[in-house]
Amino acid sequence: MLILRPAHAVPNMDKALEYNHIFSVAPMMDWTDRHCRVFHRLLSRRARLYTEMLTTGAVIHGDRQRLLGFDASEHPVALQIGGSNPRDLAESARIGEGFGYDEINLNVGCPSDRVKDGRFGACLMAEPQLVAEGVAAMKQAVKIPVTVKCRIGIDDQDPEVALDTLSRAVIAAGSDALVVHARKAWLNGLSPKENRDIPPLDYDRVYRLKAALPGVPVIINGGIATIAAAKQHLTHVDGAMLGRAAYQEPWRLLSVDPEMYGEPAPHATMHEAIEALMPYIERELAAGTRLHSITRHLVGAFHGVPGARAFRRYLAEVCTRPEAGTEALRGALRTVEERSVAPIAA
Asked: Annotated catalytic, 150?
């Protein structure tokens, strides 16, 4: 376990933090649902997984079992919340803790128009004190860690000032860690998709934040495509978070436990991992879930392996049928040659 001791100069950080957050898979809307997370857990025992972002309104007033329910195998798993009202954030955090989540993460980084209109996400970079009030309310409401995921700034903000101001405010309020996407969010002029790539990455800014807050766990996110790159970041910060690379090329996660933790992966091959997923799929099918809701997360499971294209085609043409079951997925697996190791080096 990574043990991080906070600097005495940082308010409200007067005892050692134990925060096992060396590697994580980013929260991604429409992607990191409960089926995806169960699959990812079969590839790594140690990676911290995150839900899709849920608004406080959805958590408080929505179908909680459908929105918040998760499989016990997913631990450690964090609930990401979007909102700005401290009272609602506190209530949502209590609800999340009651469901058994290991962490509550506040989204201060999503750049979509919808979150701006709802006063949550990246637009809150402009309101650090409000964010701090929300963090303080959540910390008073729950015993599990409360963390913040943010950008280095928005629009015309100076990242040196904006990130430092927000970080110190939320740490003083009790945030247990900071997850920083190393890009600005340009809320005026770029779409959410463009905000994932066009604003330039500035890893050095995140490194400087860590140097300024030596006792605060700082996790870096944004543009990290390989496990090797994630390991390199650990020479500067406490943790690394993969987003699209982890989802689109999930075979990379087979290397997380060996490379990041010095432990064997739960399964030696992707074939074995998908076979291990079958009992979960059978339970979900019995509960009325369609196979495609699960297999859509497997599209990138094989890379550089003979038959990978046929596998994807089988998923698209056979596993999407309303009556499709586990035999359809086993048929897809038979199109791919098995290897004893991950497809290519991570």
From this structure: no
CB of 154 closer than 8 Å to CB of 162: yes
Whether the ω angle into residue 76 lies within 30 degrees of 0, i.e. cis, is yes
Exposed (0-12), middle (13-18) or buried (19+): which is 315, by Cβ within 10 Å? buried
d(CA 216, CA 228): 24
Residue 344: inside a domain:
no
DSSP structural state of residue 78: E
CA dihedral 255, 259, 265, 271 (to 10 degrees): 20
**Annotated catalytic residue within 110, 123, 150, 319:** 110
Q: Domain for residue 339, yes or no? A: no
Host H or E run for residue 24: strand 23-25
CA separation for the pair 67, 172 (Å, rounded):
31
Global model pTM greater than 0.85: yes
- Same domain assignment for residues 256 and 120: yes
In angstroms, the Cα distances linking 233 to 43, 77, 197, 237, 242 are 22, 22, 19, 6, 12
Query: pLDDT digit string (tens) for 131-185?
Result: 999 999 999 999 999 999 999 999 999 999 999 999 999 999 999 999 999 999 8
Q: What is the Cα 52 distance to its own chain's centre?
A: 8
Residue where a domain stops, chosen among 237, 261, 285: 261
